Amino acid sequence: MGRALIVVDVQNDFCEGGSLAVDGGAAVAAAITGYLHAHRDAYDAVVGTQDWHIDPGTHFSEHPDFVTSWPVHCVAGSPGAQLHPDLDGSAIDVLFHKGEYSDGYSGFEAHTSDAASPQDLARWLRDRDLDTLDVVGIATDHCVRATALDGARAGFTVSVLTDLTAGVAPDATERAIAELAAAGVRITDSGDATGTAS
After folding, report:
1. Distance set, CA 71 to CA 1, 57, 59, 100 (Å)
2. Residue 132 phi/psi, 5° resolution?
3. Quick one: DSSP state of residue 143?
4. What is the DSSP string of 2-59?
5. Where in the sequence numbering do the catalytic residues fall?
6. Beta bridge partners of residue 161, listed in sequence order
7. Using CA atoms, how far apart are residues 117 and 65, in angstroms rounded to an integer?
């Protein structure tokens, strides 16, 4: 059995200067790149997810509540939906798109970007005997949370490397981490994940 790194939604719109920027997003993009360059051989696969919205319904709002509705972001094919330039996309083996017609918080709602034969994330991982997942990216309290929870529910062994994530709000991030831990997700950092000092 093998191990995969799941890089969640490190996209321009979620980093500084984007339409739904998360403080520290660009720094997380750069930190993930540094981690990948140092520890790529610790993983059998590296997977990226992207919000890829076409018509997500009430997920978009002109008057968002920033809980269940949000400003327009990560529109499919737009510059804001692209991976942040500080994230080395060449280190990612495959990209999965999510949220075309839904909220799309979890990477386990995503499918490969190959329109001819799309494959969902869980099947892709299982087809490659990948059962252990380290989850990083944006945002800790939303898409990272949902991806890690769904991974645990699907029977994967899941860790969230908190120093390689950025959250929208401190209180929500704290609640998300507590929820993840209660669900059996390991809360750690990149140094513990690789057995090196962070």
Report:
1. 40, 12, 8, 15
2. -120, 125
3. I
4. EEEEEEE--BGGGSTTSTT--TTHHHHHHHHHHHHHHHGGG-SEEEEEEE-BS--GGG
5. 9, 98, 143
6. 188
7. 36
Render each residue's pLDDT in the chain as its tens digit; 198 residues: 899 999 999 999 999 999 999 999 999 999 999 999 999 999 999 999 999 999 999 999 999 988 889 999 999 999 999 999 999 999 999 999 999 999 999 999 999 977 677 899 999 999 999 999 999 999 999 999 999 999 999 999 999 999 999 999 999 999 999 999 999 999 999 988 876 544
pTM above 0.85, yes or no: yes
The full set of domains in the chain, from first to last, is 2-51+77-95+105-194 (3.40.50.850)
21 touches 68 (CB < 8 A) = no
DSSP 8-state secondary structure symbol assigned to residue 1: -
